[in-house]
Amino acid sequence: MSLLNNAVDSIKVGVEDFEEGSRERLTSSVRNIHAGILLLYKEALKRLSPDDSNDVLIKRKIVPTRNKDDIVKFIGQGKTTVNVYQIRNRFDKLDIETNWEQFESISKIRNDIEHYYTEDDHSRIQHLIAKSFTIISSFIENELKENPVDLLGHITWSAMLEVAELYQNEREKCLNKINKISWGSDVLTEGVQDITCVFCDSDLLFPNSSDIQDLIFECKSCGAKEEAQGIIPRAVQTALGFEHYKSYVDGLEYPYGSCPECGLESYVIKEERCAFCGYEAEHFCDNCGNKIPPSEMMLSPLCAYCNNKLK
Ligand SMILES: [Zn+2]
Ligand SMILES: [Zn+2]
Ligand SMILES: [Zn+2]
C-alpha cells in the first residue's frame, strides 16, 4: 500500500475513534491522527524524490553512488524512514509548509496521553483534534494539491469539519468576550487575543470579568484558571515579543519593563503606562533629569544611578 493510502487510512480510523469517544478510542484517535499527519508529510517528500533515488527524501540514511559513467548521485539506503527532526529540516530546505507549532502540541499530547488522561481531558483532546484537522486539510490542499473531500471521503471529511466548527464556535465566544473588554492599551488588546493556556496551550481562554485587575481567564479546554497578575504580563510579552527580541539582539532599549507601582512586568514604554494597574510613571529622573531607561523603570522617579547615590 502506498504512503498516501496509509495516511488516509490512519486519519479515517482516527476520526472514527474520536467519534466513538471512549477513553481507549480517544487515546487511539490521537495516535492515529498523529501517525496520519506524519505519513502525509512523508508523502510530500516521496513525491519530490527524484526517480531511481530509492525515495531518497524519505530515507533516514542518504548515501552517494557512482555509476559506470561516473555520475554521482544521492540515493536512499535501507528501510528506515525520516524522523520528525529530519522531516522538518527537509521541509525547510524544500519550502514545504506546515504549522509546526500545532504539530508539536499534538506530539506532546500523543507522548503523554497515557500519563495524564482523565475524564476531564475529553474536551482538551477534542480541541487538539480540531487543531490537527486544520493541519491535515491545509497540508492536503496546499502541499499535496489534492482535494480533501476526494481524498478522505465525504464521511470522514464532514466529521472533521463538524469538530473544527465546534472549536471555531468556542473560539469565537472567547474572542467576543475578550473584545468587549476595554483594555486601555493597544498592546494589551493585541496580546490577550494571542496568548494560550499555560497548561495545555489551547487558545480557548474565556475572561470572566470586565475589570482588568479582577480578571480571570478560564481555559475552556483544560479548565485551568489564570489571574490577571499572570495574564497581563504574558499578554504584553506576547504582543511585544518580537520587538523585545529585536531590541535584545540590536542592544536597544526594551519595549516594556517592571511597573514601579504594582511591580509586574507590564509597563509598556511607548504607551507610558502600566497595562495592569494603569500607573503612569515619571520617565525622566527627578534628580538628574536624564531619561530613565526601561530596565530601570522600576526605580522611577529616579534613575538607577541617582537611586544608588541618594540611598
Ligand atoms: Zn488549558
Ligand atoms: Zn503597574
Ligand atoms: Zn538620575
Topology:
Elements: H1 3-20, H2 23-48, E1 59-66, E2 72-81, H3 84-94, H4 100-116, H5 121-142, H6 148-152, H7 154-180, H8 186-194, E3 205-207, E4 216-219, E5 225-227, H9 228-239, H10 241-250, E6 256-257, E7 267-268, E8 273-274, H11 304-309
Antiparallel strand pairs: 1-2, 3-4, 4-5, 6-7, 7-8
The structure holds zinc ion (3 copies).
Residues 197, 199-200, 202, 219, 221-222, 224 line the site of one zinc ion.
* Strands side by side in the biggest sheet: 3-4-5
Structural class: mainly alpha
Q: Quote the average pLDDT.
A: 91
- The figure for the number of domains is 3
Largest sheet: 3 strands, antiparallel
| Distinct ligands, ions and cofactors found in the model | zinc ion
Compute the number of strand runs: 8
* Helix coverage percent: 40-55%
Question: Beta-strand percentage?
Answer: 5-15%
In sequence order, what are the helices and strands, one letter per element? HHEEHHHHHHEEEHHEEEH
- Alpha-carbon Rg, integer: 25 Å
How would the global form be characterised?
flat
How many angstroms does the end-to-end distance come to?
Answer: 77 Å
Spans of at least 5 consecutive residues with low confidence: none
Number of helices: 11
